[in-house]
Amino acid sequence: MGTFPWKHRIGMASSMKKRQDTTIIDIARLAGVSKSTVSRVLTDAPNISKDARERVLEVVRQTGFRPNHLARSLRSGNTGIVGLVIPDIANPFWADVARGAQDAASDKGTSILIFSSDWDPDREARHFRALLQARVDGAIINPVRDSLEDIADFGIPLVLIGSSAGRFADLPSVGSNIEQGVAIGLDHANTLGLGLPALIVGDAERSARLRFVAAVKAEISLRGSATDNLIVEDGHYTVEGGRAAMERILASSSKPTFIFAANDLMALGAMQAVREAGLRCPEDISILGFDGIPAGEVSAPGLTTVAKPSRQLGAHAFNLLTEKRQTAEHLTLPCTLIERGSVRTAPPLSCAI
Amino acid sequence: MGTFPWKHRIGMASSMKKRQDTTIIDIARLAGVSKSTVSRVLTDAPNISKDARERVLEVVRQTGFRPNHLARSLRSGNTGIVGLVIPDIANPFWADVARGAQDAASDKGTSILIFSSDWDPDREARHFRALLQARVDGAIINPVRDSLEDIADFGIPLVLIGSSAGRFADLPSVGSNIEQGVAIGLDHANTLGLGLPALIVGDAERSARLRFVAAVKAEISLRGSATDNLIVEDGHYTVEGGRAAMERILASSSKPTFIFAANDLMALGAMQAVREAGLRCPEDISILGFDGIPAGEVSAPGLTTVAKPSRQLGAHAFNLLTEKRQTAEHLTLPCTLIERGSVRTAPPLSCAI
DNA sequence: CGCGACAATGGGAACGTTCCCATGGAAACA
DNA sequence: TGTTTCCATGGGAACGTTCCCATTGTCGCG
């Protein structure tokens, strides 16, 4: 017993047959019990004599045996793996969501298969297929499209995550409270006497855009202002997109002094455009972001933003996936305001003079 | 045929027995061939009649059948999954590495299991166990410790990634060329007449720190200066750590005008400290980073930095894992200089006056 | 003392696939 | 026409586990 002579394998030709060196049967033989008993010990099943359990555990420890998860999964139907399909793991917001899910999963001994869809339906579809074939126990998905007919009958537990998640009543979801976030953002701006914002928003076909714009309009209406002339500039969900959108706004006849971006990256891009145009933020133009990514902390001025609870989003999504209720639950987590320096805190010039 | 009536499963009790509805045997029956033939078709094996292949594919398409990856993996020994163990997926540098690996993997139909070790040996060990049990085809690892005895005989192909990766001669590795990166960084500084840098570096126990400091000293020596009085301030690999380190430097008697940080986050933290101390960057203090994370783009001033090829790092690591050579290969990818605004380009004041 | 209940265990089937070997037939060659 | 070769196919074993059922022994209780 002890070490086994045949456990070396340095390097792998991809077609090399991998045979597991030690199996549950070897353990059984060494411990003088049946494979059933070993299995019971390893799965913490009831009705095992203390003696047998200890003998088995001792052999397991000495041999360094690890049960083959594949065989276990094949037989039991549970893989201990869940899928996570997000737009882009390199996007700090989604990376944070992933981290939250990872931590929650790690606590329960579950591993996470992460995919980046790049907002591309084809890539997304490929990833879905990969998930299904890997027989994951469930998946957390930020759907690219708003039509989910094809994934509704996935046959595996699903949790939707993100702004558009709540739109599918029969699927559990986790999202941040956009309306509340917009409210506290505009509330803050209002307190500072900032007036109506110009909006920089993302890709038109995503429902997140609609929801953000609608929330802003609702909030403005609530305060008694008209929303007809609201400036809304579309762009890509990136720094570059935000910069381009801001440049277009600056080139237009409208001269807004308050920008509300639907996403921090765009807000930061807008901030760059403002600076490059020779204007100052926040003195000339206030910028409010939406996300709460770490990069906003290091910009100058620091980005004042409405932070989504990204990490908690991921953690709750995972928990929702496992602690399955009877009915689809819809979690909406509140946003928080992070005040840094990109919003003008002094009263507007027109008042100060 | 067409849709199957029994494919519904809404919600999952975790102990519910999951039996696959359609198997290769059903396909065989429907297509009027044997399961062997179906298997051959699905694995693109040779020696299949055109007729049989088409019949099988037709049935597969109509039923929407997907082979069970678990069973396939169990029998063949290949899971089509590789592991990736990095310090933190929420760290933009590592997120980018992960993305590079993901893209490379996606091209070959491989999925990636991502773990965050948080530089914690215990967490790392847990993740290693998870990888082994999941029977991944291989793993890309940024090792927390420099002692790898325990993972050397993992029995699965391994590729090390990161600064300390090359230290293990018998394991293939991918890393960025720190020495060359330091060289182009200091070269740039030298061209601008910046003089000797003060260093802000990370955790002392990581070999990355040693390597960075050594490279800087070597480069300075090469230029004929002494390295004895080089200021080296330790800190955590975070914005906060960089800020704290910079505050300590500012509080000390030395008054450096050029900071070279071993990592962008620390550089950005240092920039904040400089600003908060009422000094200007780059006029009073130049700051040079090392990483090339996107956040450096949106700071003010933009962070001039030596960029590591993060995404390529991940991609090459994956490729190294699959296109296995006989001997362990050590890839070293070059860094590039990104000039933004955090390094003073005008000659020093003492000269200008 | 007999009998049911239950704890502890073993053996075989099952999970869904790939791999190996055997077989039949057609094509190629003498 | 007989023999060899090779293509196409089928059937069973194997992968390493968990699940199910049967068996044994022990205890408690009437």
TrEMBL record, chains A, B:
Keyword terms, alphabetized: DNA-binding, Repressor, Transcription, Transcription regulation
Which InterPro entries does its entry note?
Answer: HTH_LacI, LacI/GalR-like_sensor, Lambda_DNA-bd_dom_sf, Peripla_BP_I
Q: Does the keyword Repressor apply?
A: yes
Fetch the Pfam families from UniProt.
Answer: LacI, Peripla_BP_3
| The keyword S-adenosyl-L-methionine belongs to this UniProt entry's keyword annotation | no
> Which superkingdom heads the taxonomic lineage of this protein's source?
Bacteria
Database matches in Gene3D superfamilies: 3.40.50.2300, lambda repressor-like DNA-binding domains
This one is known as HTH-type transcriptional regulator DegA
Q: Which organism is it from?
A: Flavimaricola marinus
